[in-house]
Amino acid sequence: MLLKTRLFIGFLLIGIFIAGIGGISILEFEKSINHLNVLDDSIKKLNKSQNLLSYAVNIKYYDEVLTQSARNYAFTENEKWKLRYFENEPLLSKELLNALELGSEIEKEFFLQIDEANNNLVEMESNAIELIQSGKQDKAISILESQKYEKYKKDYQNSLANYLESRDLEYTTLMMESTKEVDSSINSVFENTNSAKIIIGVSVIIIIIGSLVLGFLISKSIIKPIKKLQNVSKQIIEGNLNVKVEINSKDEIGELSNSFNYMIEHLKKTTDVEAQLALQQNLRNALDESSIVSIIDPNRIVTFVNEKFCEISQYSKEEIIGTDQSIVRSNVHSKEFYDKLWNVIKNGNVWHGEICNKAKDGTLFWNETTIVPFADKNGIIYEYVAIRNDITHQKELSKKLIEIERLSAIGELAARIAHDIRNPLSVIKNSLGNIQLIKNDPVKINETIERCDRAVGRIAHQIDGVMGFLKESPLEISRLSFLEILQSAILGIPNHKGINIIVPTKDVMILGDKIKLESLFYNLIINAVQKLNSNGVITIKAEADDAVNKSKITISDDGESIPEEYLSKIFEPLITTKQHGTGLGLASCKKIIKQHNGVISVSNNPVTFTIILPSKEDGNNLSKNI
User: Fold this and answer.
1) Rounded mean pLDDT of 452-465?
2) Residue 229 belongs to a domain
3) 371 has pLDDT over 90
4) Cis ω on the peptide bond leading into residue 606 (within 30° of 0)?
């Protein structure tokens, strides 16, 4: 049963009881009614004054709301403040109109002054909002902080304060007069009702008993739930938003309980939103201080840049905002570079990379850039935030280091070539000097010529190794016999007597460039020959895997293992474990293998080089390396 129904039944029973007794007293009370009519005029005056005071208070409140909303929107550009401003501005105008209609001539003068000042303020605030929407935040702030704005604000507040001051005095006087009239009327009523005391006294006793019974029922169904609500209210005031009102009645108290629970949930959400706004502002401040930031709309127009962007680009905000940012583009990147960048972020993905831009004075600066797209709840991108860090200094240092390393590598390579060529040149020089002494001895002349020929071969080998690494010639692809390439490579290796080279008995086919592959196997075999020093075994194996169109070739020797510190970097340029050599042989081998889309690796125990090369044409075409 609804609370109002229960109360109605209770009071109805009491009303029926006292109806008879009350009828006797009606005549006496009619006399009192005449005196009560005297209160009418006083109450109307009091209501009018009260309403005007209420309008004045509301006007003051809405003025503060409009002022704060306009300033907050100017400084934060958050759209919720603009919406709040335009929601409350009509309410302020309505309150002023009500006050002008209700007030007297004197009161209208106050409200006309307030209305005039309000119109001026609203005009300036509306202009400021339009400027913010046009991206002219600084001009908007200057309007709200101008002396003209402050003057209108002061006029507004002074007029309102003067009115409130005068109304307070008048309202107090009116209250005193009304109180006197009420006292007089009450005394008259008391005198007229004195004759009904006996009848009413009896009625009061009976009513008291009934009221006690009704009060008990009301206490049980109303007071107890209200105390619960009061307790919850105290906890909310103390900041505890995890409480819940548990009243399960089906009456108005139950509905009030549900409203309380809804209010608590709303407060939680509001608190979370404010915390998030504060966090976002802190993050934005940190970002502004540490990085170069710009914001671009979906049409590629710049809507925001921070101070660091202006410092490094040497352009002002006015020169950048509203443009497509092309004035800071350098000629370092192609159009395709920017097209790919935009394809990434337009699809909602984050782009990260390095971009070279141009400052106002023409100097170039490098940025490590991250561009993050932001989308609304419908997935539509509404802006792109670019966060940059200046890496110009690092780029310059890196370039210098590369040049230093290049010069160092060239110097080391030159030293190695000079060292390796010096001995063969000495042999040639000494041999040429001895030819006159042995010119009548054909055998010794032939031996001397052979020594010179070997020395020239060593020099040619060194030069071929360097050129093979530095010069990348096109591939001439054909399907080749591995054994034919192997035999050709072995024939070119000098001084391998005493070395047992075991070749495969079964041939396999490989796909590649004949000259480069001969150079590859020549380098691998001669390295093993030089290491074995005329005493050892080199084992070469080959097998085909037709399932994947690959051929696997291994070259092993029974010499000493490669030191572990060299094993992982044996294919790097200028790395060698020998006392002579340029350190480019194995690097050239890896380069040749890479050109052929193959794989080369090395392992110890025994030292084994494993090469995997294509045996047939497949989807991974070698032509891309030509």
Assistant:
1) 63
2) no
3) yes
4) yes
Decide: pTM greater than 0.90.
Answer: no
Q: Rounded to an integer, what distance in angstroms lies between the CA atom of residue 421 and that of residue 580?
A: 10
Residues 306 and 268 in one domain: no
Counting other chains too, the contacts that 365-373 makes at CB distance below 8 Å and 24 or more residues apart are 365/312, 365/390, 365/392, 366/390, 366/391, 366/392, 366/394, 366/395, 367/292, 367/391, 371/341, 371/345, 373/345, 373/346, 373/348, 373/349
Summarised one tens digit per residue, pLDDT across range 376-401 is 888 899 999 999 999 988 888 877 77
Sequence-separated (6 or more) residues with CB below 8 Å from residue 57: 164
Residues 170 and 219 in one domain: yes
Tokens 């192997």, located at residue: 486
pLDDT score of 233 more than 50 = yes
* Domain end (from 390, 406, 437): 390
Shared domain check, 258 and 310: no
Residue 341's CATH number: 3.30.450.20
Mean pLDDT of the chain: 78
Residues 445 and 510 in one domain: no
Is the pLDDT score of 515 beyond 90? no
| 372 DSSP β-pair partners | 385
Domain end (from 390, 415, 433):
390
